[in-house]
Amino acid sequence: MIARREGSRYKGTGAHMPDWVVGFAREMSEYVGCSGVMLYTNNDGVVEFYRGRGFELLGDSSRVMFCDLGPVHEGRRAA
């Protein structure tokens, strides 16, 4: 889980966090077989923000989103 503290609001911290997490997950997926990143937001107003970073809503949910990192094969990314 990652979160930013309330005092850092409007300072750009939150804008970099999903990009960093997805980048880190992509790197780790080469070794551990991670296929995606899931997030939960308690703010419906940021859904489009996350969509712009590759996340999609899961099912009928308005708060759970997933960023697919692509296929994996035995802990390594498929070629």
What would you note in describing this structure?
This protein has 79 residues and is an alpha+beta fold. It has a domain of 46 residues. Helix content is 32%, strand content 20%. It is built from two helices and five strands, in the order αβαββββ. The strands form two sheets. A three-stranded antiparallel β-sheet has the order 1-3-2. The protein has a two-stranded antiparallel ribbon with strand order 4-5. A hairpin with a 2-residue loop joins strand 4 and strand 5. The longest helix is centred in the first third of the chain and has 20 residues. The N and C termini lie far apart (29 Å).
Helix content: 25-40%
Strand fraction: 15-25%
Please trace the helix and strand order, writing H or E for each element.
HEHEEEE
Helical run tally: 2
- How does the overall form come out from the CA principal axes? globular
Adjacency order of strands in the biggest sheet: 1-3-2
Tags for this model:
79 residues; alpha+beta; 3-stranded antiparallel sheet; 2 helices
Summarize the structure.
The protein is α+β, with helices and mostly antiparallel strands and 79 residues long. The protein contains two helices and five strands; from the N terminus they run H-E-H-E-E-E-E.
